[in-house]
Design a protein that fits this description.
It is built from 3 helices and 9 strands, in the order βββββββαβαβα. By secondary structure, it is an alpha+beta fold. The strands form 2 sheets. Strands 1, 2, 5, 8 and 9 form a 5-stranded antiparallel beta sheet that branches. A 4-stranded antiparallel beta sheet has the order 4-3-6-7, with no helix packed on it. β6 and β7 form a beta hairpin. It starts with 12 loop residues before the first strand and ends with a helix.
Length: about 250
C-alpha cells in the first residue's frame, strides 16, 4: 500500500542543519535604567536561537520557537513566530529555560526540545575582572538538528532553500549536510568562524594546557600530603617512645 501523499520519506538520507542557542546578559546601569523596570532586577538578558554562520536563515525550516521562562514572569511561555527568534527581559536570578522548536508543516516532524541555563554572572578565574569591566555574560551552544529520511516535500525544501546537493552522491552534498547510505552522518565544521575547525583546535590546545596545570597542582598537593603523613608518623613514633620510657 503506497504511503499517503506528503508522508513518503527519502530512504537512506540524513540532512543536518546547524544553529546556535544561548543567552547574553548585561548588568543594568543604575544611571540609565528605565524607571519602569522592577527595582529588584539587576540584569537585562536576551535568550536566542540563531543561524550558525555561514547559514543566514532558519525560518525556511523552523515555523516558531517557544521559550518557557521562570513561572514568576508574566506570560512565561513566549512564542516567537519569525526571526529573530529571541526574547529580551530583565531579572535578578538564573534559571533553566525550556526551548521548544517547531518545524514548518512540510517537515511532518515532531517539535524538538532543548534546555538552556540562563547565566547572569561570570564564572571562572577571570570572573572578578569581568564584573569590574561590566562585560556581558555570553552562554551559548552549537547544536545540529538531524532529519533522518525526511519526507519528500521537506527534503526538497531543505535542499533548495537551505542549499546542498540533491541526493546520494550529489556534488557538494557532504559539505551542505546531505548524507547517503544507511543514514551516515556527514556534518563537518567549517574551517574558519566562531564554530570551526580552527576554534576547535584552539579549544583543544586550551584544554591540554588546563590538564597540564591541573596535573602540576595535583602533584604539588600529593607532595604536601606525603609530607604531612610523614610528619604525623614521626609524631606518633615520638609519642610511642615517650610512653615506653615511662
Amino acid at each position: 500500500m503506497p504511503a499517503p501523499a506528503g508522508t513518503k520519506r527519502v530512504k537512506g538520507i540524513s540532512i543536518y542543519r546547524p544553529f546556535i542557542f544561548g543567552s547574553i546578559a548585561r548588568p543594568l546601569d543604575p544611571t540609565t535604567r528605565p524607571s519602569t523596570i522592577n527595582a529588584d532586577h539587576t540584569h537585562q538578558w536576551t535568550l536566542y536561537v540563531r543561524p550558525c554562520p555561514p547559514h543566514p536563515d532558519l525560518s525556511y525550516f523552523i515555523k516558531k520557537i517557544q521559550f518557557k521562562l521562570h513561572e514568576t514572569y508574566t506570560n512565561s511561555l513566549r512564542t516567537i513566530e519569525a526571526p529573530p527568534f529571541e526574547v529580551t527581559e530583565t531579572g535578578w536570578g538564573e534559571f533553566e529555560v525550556q526551548i521548544k522548536i517547531y518545524f514548518v508543516p512540510e517537515a511532518n516532524e515532531k517539535p524538538q526540545t532543548i534546555w538552556h541555563h540562563l547565566k547572569l554572572h561570570p564564572y571562572g578565574p577571570d570572573a572578578e575582572r569581568q564584573r569590574e569591566r561590566k562585560e556581558p555574560v555570553v552562554s551559548e551552544c552549537y547544536e545540529e538538528v538531524v532529519f533522518n529520511e525526511p519526507v519528500e516535500a521537506f527534503y526538497d525544501l531543505l535542499t533548495t532553500s537551505g542549499g546542498g546537493g540533491r541526493g546520494k552522491g550529489a556534488k557538494g552534498a557532504k559539505q551542505m549536510g546531505v548524507g547517503g547510505g544507511k543514514g551516515e552522518r556527514v556534518a563537518e565544521l567549517p574551517f574558519e568562524g566562531v564554530y570551526s575547525q580552527k576554534e576547535e583546535g584552539r579549544e583543544l590546545d586550551r584544554l591540554g594546557d588546563a590538564i597540564k596545570t591541573v596535573e602540576v597542582m595535583v602533584n604539588a598537593e600529593r607532595k604536601k600530603l606525603e609530607e604531612r603523613e610523614k610528619m604525623l608518623a614521626d609524631l606518633k613514633s615520638e609519642e610511642g617512645a615517650a610512653v615506653q620510657a615511662r
